[in-house]
Every structure is written in structure tokens, then in C-alpha cells.
Amino acid sequence: MMVMASPIREYILALGAAIVCTALCFALSPLVALTDLVMVYLVGTLAVALRGRRGPAVLSSFLGVLCFDFFFVPPRYTLHVESSEYLVTFLVMLAVALTISHLTLRVRTQAEAAKRSEVAAETERLRSSLLSAVSHELKTPLTAILGSADSLMRASAPGGGHWRELLENIREEAERLTRLVHNLVETTRLESGKARLRKEPYPIEDVVGTALERLEKSLAGRPVRTSLPETLPLVPLDPALMELVFVNLVDNAIRHAPGMTPIEISARALDAALEVSVTDRGPGLAPEHIGHVFEKFYRADPAGGGAGLGLAICKAVVEAHDGAIAARNRSEGGALFVLTLPRS
Strand 335-342 vs strand 273-279: parallel, antiparallel, or unpaired? Predict the structure, then answer.
């Protein structure tokens, strides 16, 4: 990527280009027509535009016209012009020089932007590949840990209640890490375009119910109020991926809403979509965080735990279903997440 010089150095470069072009014109003037010398100054302006900013390129354009007039147009060594036809030459020369400098600078800016985008895309691809590889490697030992913890809990516990408490802690943390790994895998699959949605007309209440069953231990008796009328229409969706959305939304509410305050899930049918809301009674979202909560690895409250992936995958999954998701605060306090899914 081309690195720009300092502003003063660029203006000196523009002046130097005018001097070099003038010297070349003196050498070529006995051999070519007077108007052909214009091309030398245009090449000089192009060279400045390729290396500098807009200011030096414009300066080079004007210096080219002035040097051509002063040194070569009769009467020489004066800015006075005998023939009015040279005035047209000056105007055309200046217009062409300014156009060349403008187009050159724009092309260079676009090239630099494309290079930055390419580097960013490659960095993201490598990061996604690394995350995917690490996530897949973690799946097997996590499954083994969960299985061992469950087996030990079903067996006789020689350490009594303390022994069982430790095992439950192992299982809970392993389950949390398993969800994190699952989020990493699904995020990389969705971003790489490798995820294939298995859509089918499905009742949203079944998806919500399955998600709540998965979070039964995390909820630990916390009330969940649902308002999911039986008249809700079926929605074309991938049940496994959409279940992940509600698991992450409810888990987010568990971590950020205090105590045993209720979590509410409701849905209603719109003309062309189904709208589902997940709300809590927590402190809500700070205004400066609302526009960023769906960004990958963004954490509004680092003390609340999590890796900043849950809401990011919610957004990715919902948008993969051609839907939309938004976050805002409830007027009576707490956070509100609303997602809409097209009915067709």
C-alpha cells in the first residue's frame, strides 16, 4: 500500500516536477512543436498525483500552465501573451491537468480502499478458520466432561452434598462452555456461507419450548411468562438454528436481569411477518451500547460474563431467515429484543 509523504514534502515535489518538466521542454523545444510541450507538463502532473494529495496535484497543474506560458509562449520570459489562441491552450491544458489529477487521486484512493478491504477480509477469514478449528477440537472433550459429570452424579457420592455441589458446578460450567463453542461453530458457518438452512413451516411456540427446556437448569426456577397464542401462523424456519436464537436471548436475560425477576416471551402475527419479543426486568441497555450489542465479541457489561457472541449469532441467524432483530429499552425498565420473521 502506498504511503503518503508529508504535506510540505509533497508541495516541494510539485515544484520539483515543474522544474524537471521545464528542463525537459527546453531540451525538446528545438525538436517538437510548441503545443507538444504541453504533454510534458501533463505527465509531470500525473506523477505528482500518483504520489501526493489533491493540493500538490492542483498546484502542479497551475505551475505547468505558468511555466509553459513564461518560458515558451511568445513573448518568452513574460506572462504576456501575444496571440489569444494560446489562452484557449492554457484553459484546455489546465482543465486536462486538473482532470488527470482528480481521476488519478480517485483511482489511487479506491485502490487503497480495496487493498484495506482485502486485508480485512483475509484477516477475518483466518480468524474464522482458527475459531472453527478450535471449536471443533473442544467439542469432544466437553462432551466427555459432561458425560463423566452426569455419571458421577448418578453414582453414590462419597463426599456427600459438597461432592454433588462440585459435580453440578462442573456440569453447569461445561454446559456453558458447550454453548459458547456451539455459538462459535455456528457463527463461523453462517459468516462463511457454508450453513444451509433447512426451512420448513414450523410453530414458533415449539421452538421456544425446546429452548426453554435446554435452559431449565440455568433458569433455576426463574419465572418465564409466555404469550404465544395457538392461532399464530406457521413460519418457514430452520428449527435448530432458531432454537439457538431463543437460547441466547433468554440466556442473555438470565445473566443481566437481577434475582428472580421474570422473563417474558410473546409473539403476534403481522400482515407479512411474525413478531416475537423477549423482555426482561433488568437495568436495560445504556444508550451508547444499543447500536453495538449485536456486534461480534462486543460486551456491554464485561462483568456480566459471556464472550459477546450470543447476540451476534442471533442477528446472523435471523438475517439468514430474511428477518430482522432489534434491541431497545422498555418504558417500565428492562431490555426488549424484537425479532421479525417473514411468513412466506
Answer: antiparallel
